[in-house]
Design brief:
The chain is of the alpha+beta class and 382 residues long. Helices cover 20% and strands 34% of the residues. It has three domains: 94 residues, no CATH class; 189 residues, Sandwich (Jelly Rolls), CATH 2.60.120; 70 residues, Phage tail protein beta-alpha-beta fold. About 15% of the residues have low confidence. It holds the Pfam family FecR.
């Protein structure tokens, strides 16, 4: 298992262009010794290729070979799959959809999501951020709110006044389906807000605690302040930290709330039965609808992939996969007939159009099409 993880890391570095010359030569040599077919390989052939490459990993001699950049990347991608499928959305003839196995109808395509959000001020005024120019966009008491050149929302704090000390004042940012946004809270905490999410936070810099309320998903890099703990309230739980990095997925349509710790430490408290757990880096707390709170080791790269511009799945059921696509592309997903009982593993870039993402399903002989019904965009799967 440990050797397999090393293999995956090497192949991921190859696909990202981060290999040393020696490592790149090794991957290309493994590929060069495989018998590559022109057509989409059968599942049995894929499994044979994977076994073949794994066997070659144990061999140490390195020989110079001709470059195989395009095709070696495809085989590297194949090896990263746990179910014989991995789709990296870069040009590759080897993994284009085959019309013999699936149909993706040539309907109008759906563009990926982008930076879109609405800011609600303490006085109730709403500002559409993606339609606002860079620079100062609002004034909250003595605080100025800016949209910088990177599209981030930041606060420039002024001096405290009496109202700040006695009356809590809150702002809310919400992203629509098909949107995401990055903001820096008044205390310096950085927040990445995923699609169909919202966060409510105090703008008073001198309150005794830092409490935010989250619906949906967000990644936090919390500014350290030993005198004021940072708390996130979301769907039946409260997460408390002093300064750390973590991700919370708390969508209402997901069966489990997931809190994944990247750096530092956090305490997760379940609010119904008052259960608590402490997380260490690399751990994930899961809170289900029966208020059962558990902890396990997490694949951190999967948990924060959305922040880094990717979907990343590890044996995810098709329902969870399609819920993520639905939120990001602002589209309804309709299953015609029984929902397929399959799991998917792999990575997909979020900046690609929906039709390219749907090609992933061609490996499972599923027919997909994009339709607009009564003005509503739909992905039909059968």
């Amino acid at each position: 298992m440990e050797e397999h993880e090393d293999i995956k890391k090497l192949l991921k570095r190859y696909l990202a262009g981060e290999c040393t010359p020696e490592e790149r030569m090794r991957v290309e040599q493994w590929y060069g010794q495989l018998d590559i077919q022109a057509e989409e390989p059968a599942k049995e052939q894929v499994e044979e290729d994977i076994i073949d490459i794994r066997n070659r990993l144990r061999r140490s001699p390195i020989r110079r070979i001709a470059p195989w950049y395009r095709y070696a990347a495809a085989v590297a991608a194949v090896l990263l799959l746990t179910v014989g499928m991995y789709y990296q959305f870069k040009p590759s003839d080897r993994f284009k959809s085959s019309s013999k196995t699936a149909t993706i109808a040539s309907q109008p395509d759906i563009a990926p999501g982008r930076n879109r959000a609405i800011l609600k001020l303490a006085n109730g005024k709403e500002i559409i951020l993606d339609g606002s120019p860079n620079g100062e966009i609002a004034q909250e008491g003595t605080h100025a709110i800016f949209k910088n050149v990177d599209g981030e929302l930041v606060y420039q704090l002024g001096g405290a006044n009496t109202s700040d000390a006695t009356i809590p004042r809150f702002n809310t940012m919400r992203t629509p389906r098909g949107g995401q946004y990055h903001l820096v809270l008044p205390d310096g905490t950085k927040v990445w807000l995923n699609a169909a999410s919202s966060i409510t936070y105090a703008i008073n810099g001198n309150l005794g605690e830092r409490l935010v309320k989250l619906e949906g998903e967000a990644y936090f890099e919390v500014a350290k302040d030993a005198t004021r703990p940072f708390r996130v309230e979301s769907k039946g739980q409260i997460v408390e930290v002093l300064g750390t990095q973590f991700n919370i997925n708390s969508y209402l349509d997901e069966p489990v709330v997931k809190t994944t710790l990247i750096e530092g430490s956090v305490r997760v408290a379940e609010t119904a039965e008052h259960k608590t757990v402490m997380l260490r880096p690399g751990q994930q707390a899961a809170l289900d609808r029966q208020s059962h709170l558990s902890v396990k080791q997490a694949d951190v790269s999967d948990a924060v992939a959305w922040k880094n511009g990717k979907f990343s799945f590890n044996r995810a059921d098709i329902g969870m996969v399609m819920r993520q696509l639905s939120r990001w592309y602002d589209v309804e997903v309709v299953f015609k007939g029984k929902k397929p009982e399959i799991t998917l593993s792999g990575e997909v870039y979020r900046n690609t159009h929906a039709s390219k993402v749907l090609e992933i399903l061609s490996f499972y002989k599923l027919n997909c099409r994009i339709e607009t019904v009564n003005g509503v965009k739909q992905i039909i799967i059968q």
